[in-house]
Amino acid sequence: MVAFSGCGVHNEAALGTVEPNPSSAQAEASSSPSPASTPSLEPKPSPSQTPAPLSSSIGSVPQVKHAFSAAEEAVVKQYRSAIPQKWGERLPGIRTHIVTKEPLIALTFDACGGKEGSGYDKKLIDYLIKEKIPATLFVNARWIEANPDIFAQLAANPLFEIENHGTEHRPLSVNGKLAYGIKGTKSVEEVIHEIDDNADHIEKLTGRRPLFFRSGTAYYDDVSASIVHDLGFQAAGYNVLGDAGATYNTEQVYQALTKAKSGSIVLAHMNHPEKDTAEGVMKAIPVLQKAGFRFVQLATYDLD
Q1: Beta strands 212-213 and 135-139: pairing type?
Q2: Cross-strand partners of 162
């Protein structure tokens, strides 16, 4: 497996809907189970989500890791000896569907950041704005640093829900597991910093704390997935692979999106304007609308 421009490439044999499979080969068992690795996966109540004016200090990656709160120290203590038993994109606690019987689809776009992943797909975003299509944007701290003015504009637009794509765009692991060649976090402390440092940063800049977290590459071990929830967030997965790390051509993106079903969460990217994601999305959305689908933000519905 390889990494593409700072984002994990998802190489699926088939396009379109990917149903969760708890027994998938992506989930790898380790030696012995740890009681601390299987706590309740329900998120704790979140702070108020009322937006506040954007901060004027926008534009810098959190350079200093914040001191842990008492709650974070408790998480470190709880999971320090936990042994991961599973690894992958589809684990208990990873939300992959909207709970609905209506014809609804959530479009989610990652902005991964980094040397080759900090671009901005203006064509894609302008199209969504023109057509009044709501979407959820998972933004990495490095992308915010590279695009401070654009981030401010996106965060101020009610069409877009800003969520957390991590501080360094790393797979979420407590022992350094790799995904697509990208090294994962290697301790409970690093997991917390990967989640909370960017959450704090986004909250400081926008006045709204993210509700959802999606790791770099969307990979987790079961311990880190539990930590996400214990920190008060929901881990956001997907069930439609929209552009495979921005490697799909226009027709592949179109075919993937038009196979979406009611309750689908689509994963695509908004940080590669040189790729075909925008063209594929623009081709697919009118077809989906004609079929009766509406587009929603993740925060407006329950997920499972």
Answers
A1: unpaired
A2: 137
Q: Residue holding tokens 């189970």? A: 33
Length of the chain: 304
What DSSP line would sit under 48-79, residue for residue? Answer: P----PPPTT-S----SPPPPPHHHHHHHHHH
End-to-end CA distance of the chain: 28
Q: pTM for this one?
A: 0.84
Helix-helix angle 70-79:188-206, to 10 degrees: 150
The mean pLDDT value for 34-57 works out to 39
Asked if residue 111 has pLDDT above 60, the reply is yes
H or E segment and range at residue 143? helix 141-146
Whole-angstrom CA distances from 218 to 87, 182, 223, 225 are 11, 11, 14, 11
Return the ∠ at Cα 88 (arms to 103 and 34), rounded to 5°.
Answer: 120
| pLDDT band for position 63 (cuts 50, 70, 90) | low
CA distances (Å), origin 251, targets 16, 159, 242, 246, 292: 12, 26, 11, 13, 21
- What amino acid occupies position 174? V
Give the pLDDT confidence of 179-189 residue by residue, as tens digits: 999 999 999 99
CA distances from 229 to 91, 94, 213, 223, 289 (A): 13, 10, 9, 10, 34
Q: Could you give the count of Cα atoms lying within 13 Å of 126 in the half-sphere of its Cβ? A: 6
Res 72: pLDDT: 96
Q: Which two tokens stand for residue 38?
A: 């299987």
- Helix (H) / strand (E) containing 183: strand 182-183
